[in-house]
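Internal tracking record. Fields below are filled automatically when a chain is submitted to the structure queue. Please do not edit lines marked as system-generated. If the sequence contains nonstandard residues, flag them in the REMARKS field before resubmitting.
Queue: standard
Priority: normal
Entity type: single polypeptide chain
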Amino acid sequence: MRYILFGLFGFLLFVVIQLSASIVNTKHNLSISNTAGTVKATSETEVCVFCHVPHFAQPVGKPLWNRSMPTTDYVMYDSDYLRRMGYPSIAADLGTANDTPGALSRQCLSCHDGTIAVGAVSKLRYDYDGTTIAMAGVDPDGTIIDTAVGFIGTDLSHHHPVGAKYDTTISKTFGDGGIRSSELKATPDTPIKLYEYGGYSGKYVECSSCHDPHKDNGKFLHYDSGANHAQNFVGTCTSCHEKTDWVGGAHQAPPGTPTYTDAALIAKYGTGLVSELGCANCHVPHNGQGVGYLNRQVLEQTCFQGAASSEAGAKCHGVGGAKDIKSILSRTYTHPVLAEDNLPGTQHTNLDSLYGTGHLDPLAIKGMEWATNKHAVCMDCHNPHRAKPGTHVASGSWYSAPGTSTNLVSNVLKGVPGIEPTWPTAWTQPTTFTTMAAAEKEYQICFKCHSYWGVGTATKGLSIYTSAGGTPLTDVAWEMNINNKSGHSVVINQLGRTGSYPPKELNTVQLLTPWKENPGLNTMYCSDCHGADNELNGDPKGPHGSNLKYILKGDNQFWPKKIDGVTLYTLDDIFNGTAGGVMCMNCHDINHPHDKWRNNMKNQAGTTPCVGCHVAVPHGSPVSRLIGYSTFPAPYNYGGNSLKMTGWKKKFYDAADVGTVGNAYAPVTGCSGGMCHSTNNGGYDANLMP
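SYSTEM-GENERATED OUTPUT FOLLOWS
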């Protein structure tokens, strides 16, 4: 009688399944009738028995579970980001304990982790205990083949977390009061599910939160109302994840409707449109190579390749992509992004900026300090979820339009953490910073690395690090200190420079468009001087890399040597019109600050190189107008012996200077020993770098 009842149960269940067109037509039909996959029984005809039994079910698992739970110790999902956010630990007992977070996922893993034979069931028509149904398409021991699409294994670190508490209250506060949240919706959208467990507070994410093993669709997704798999993929992600500013962003709605040409990708997702693939462009829920963040590839390769099987089939940031950044990063002088791909321990988070020199992470996770975690990765400067299309410079231009220059972050830099220095006395190192959840100005992003926060203690502006060419690297925040007497107006405009004295600004005849508009009131970007060498003709904008030293850009791209790499630019070059190519000519009419001096200087001064008077690192100086003294160290003193001056001071405007071809800042003393301003007296700028 019991066999009749069981057969009737199986028949009725089979009829329901057939009518609903569910599991029978999927790979989860493991009976001999399976037509969707290669893993199938050699003779067993029952469909449900591989997971369920009507009586004497296993004490763990539901409903009416017919398999043993795996007892494996799993490597759980983890990331620096989650730990820094203070996120509750994922249940470490997923593989061993009963009725704890993870039980529902262990039901799935009883096949998919490869430790239990697919055909191993507890009961089969009441005749046997511990029966193993003979299967085809499996390993000799009956387990799932480790190359199969459905193989998960016991290392869950590169799969979407399961046994994870869904907690919307988690957040991290930065020094400026900005907050990074978990970016989770208060409640997941239907049909995504969460689960509760006795003795545990809150709700948990399990495999069946996203997957319905009975559903007749390609990946058993609960969410299947999209027109293709790509839309179902994105709909599943966005049912829980609510990324700030994602909608309308550069990756959610990229300009130009870029499309992959990868045929396999298009067949899998039902579309090649980058905009439709959304989250799937960069992330996968299973087997992500970028362990910890479910990135498709390791580090920058995700940005270069996207969802394609190679860069050639992608319209991303690889060679030939819509915005080919990789080629720029392969040039002679670059941020060392590509080098990081082969270095161990280069994982990073957008919380790294919270921890710099002197402020190490109490969790011992690496921060920004070069001594332990020097890195240059895309996420240091870009937030892929919040970036918007466009920079502050229009296509075909080097700089902002006249009258519009600021130092506010461009659209492509939106949402990137930064730091703001507390400015100390002139020509001393800023060592106190306010961390920012989202930088407001471009330099706040650059300073994360190019200041004490990254390079540590400096001496006379010099860090202990050198560039690839051997030039000592300097603390740029030190040089940009608003209390210094001079500096390019990256942090603050010239009229606002507290360490300067009148006349602070240059006049209109000394500047070129667009800088001559509103003289003294403009600010500028680090990327106005540093960027790709061919931005005017199509290179992606920004200081990714260049074939020119110091990653310089503009119509004139050389400093302090000419294109030959040997000869220094001199006053004679200015006087004789042979100074073409000198970087300064991008923004300054360099004749006007110098031609009146020519009449007041001895003839031999014409052979003086530009770096005979000006610091070779023109970010800032303790002396006005980027003048440097002979006592300055290299690299400010080019070659260690180029600077000749020992004293200098600006001159107020004369009536005769206004509107004339001439310099408003003529010498205030004669020459001695063949060089102007040889003594430091009479109110000259103090020498702050002996």
